[in-house]
Amino acid sequence: MTDSVDYVPPKVWTWNKSGGGRFANINRPISGPTHDKDLPVGRHPLQLYSLATPNGVKVTTMLEELLALGHSGAEYDAWLIKIGDGEQFGSGFVEANPNSKIPALVDQSGPKPIRVFESGAILLYLAEKFGAFLPMEAGARAECLSWLFWQMGSAPYLGGGFGHFYAYAPTKIEYAIDRFAMETKRQLDVLDRQLADNEYVAGSEYTIADMAIWPWYGGLVKGWLYEAAEFLAVQDYKHVQRWADAIGDRPAVRRGRMVNRVFGELSSQLHERHDAADFETRTQDKLTAQEE
């Protein structure tokens, strides 16, 4: 890799397969499938294909919250997609999401399956389908959707910007880290000021805006993302901390974090979810196997 100080961009960019760092095996400048593989289909109305990244946790949290409210139509099968192995480039997954990113949802409840991709779109789809976690009054609805799309526009600076250059890039580049650390702290300040006067992000109600923002910014201030809590002085954002703790204590959020999780303590991992009882039986099976 050319040192950043000496690097001069060529007239025409070409793909250097060996220069992609940690994610070189899955990053490429073209789309489409790399291999044929059908997606599995379970018995529930909703089929989720995902991994417990922040974007994946948004959707499993929403589904668990809907079930907690008694919406039986929100029962779902959650299938693990190992993005490090390139499973998102299988033909079936590309059919569900041509952008080859998790999560992808297929709604089998109607006469014709409906695919929904992009985490924000899935949250909005489910909120409208079940009439939950999205205010009906025009002003409150606008506020909720504004914060939902704030997250969609802001998180790439946190993940693809700060997270990549601080935690994953093969070379530490001071300019890039400083640039995105500044933007990340600005975003945390935006959120902190909003939460100073509101219990939840969009006001007094818990909504899909909270579900979208919490896995990224809640995870950041609680030290789960990029091991950057000290670097970013996250303790300064007291209102974000209060909100992050409150959301994280919700039983449905705790369950949502477990689904499609393949890291951390075994007791926190539920690789696939096909029934509510899986939280007790399938995670416990892993612990028993480990002890043996």
Structural commentary:
The chain is of the alpha+beta class. The chain folds into three domains: 46-130, Glutaredoxin, CATH 3.40.30; 138-254, Glutathione S-transferase Yfyf (Class Pi), Chain A, domain 2, CATH 1.20.1050; 262-291, no CATH class. Helix content is 46%, strand content 6%. Strands 2-1-3-4 form a four-stranded mixed β-sheet, with helices on one face. A hairpin with a 6-residue loop joins strand 3 and strand 4. The longest helix has 31 residues, at 138-168. The radius of gyration is 20 Å and the shape is globular. The relative contact order is 0.13. The mean pLDDT is 94.
Q: Provide the CATH top-level class of the largest domain.
A: Mainly Alpha
Biggest sheet character:
4 strands, mixed
Fraction of residues in β-strands: 5-15%
What's the average pLDDT?
94
Q: SSE string, helix = H, strand = E?
A: EHEHEEHHHHHHH
How far the N terminus sits from the C terminus, by CA atoms, comes to 46 Å
CATH topology description of the largest domain: Glutathione S-transferase Yfyf (Class Pi), Chain A, domain 2
CATH architecture verdict of the largest domain: Up-down Bundle
Structural class: alpha+beta
Number of strands: 4
